[in-house]
Amino acid sequence: MGTVKLYATLRQRAGGRRDIDIPWSAGDSVIDVVRELLRLEPGLSGYILSETESALPYVSIFLNGRDIRYLEGLETALDGETEIAIFPPVAGGGG
């Protein structure tokens, strides 16, 4: 079991929930968890994955604080308790 943490607009699309506990087993991958998240929170559909089930380019997904782009992407295997954090696009600026 682990926790998916949602930030900013993703939290709003999940009914204001920030932390969502999702059961998984060692050997499951990040994509397995994201699929289950989207099943449980259909309001997130189209905001994390593309129609071809790749992460949208402007969405950042972290596994225990590490960007999955520098691991095995959505195929990164999970082990034991872990935390996945998903951030929508963030813009800010100059000044």
Describe the structure.
The chain is globular and about 30 Å long. It is built from 2 helices and 5 strands, in the order βαβαβββ. The longest helix has 11 residues, at 30-40. The chain has helices spanning 9-13, 30-40, and strands at residues 2-6, 19-22, 60-63, 66-67, 83-87. It starts with a strand and ends in an 8-residue tail after the last strand. It is α+β, with helices and mostly antiparallel strands and 95 residues long. Helix content is 17%, strand content 21%. It has a 5-stranded mixed beta sheet with strand order 2-1-5-3-4. β3 and β4 (66-67) form a beta hairpin. The model has no long low-confidence stretch (mean pLDDT 91).
What features would you highlight for this structure?
95 residues; 5 strands; 5-stranded mixed sheet; single chain; alpha+beta; globular; 2 helices
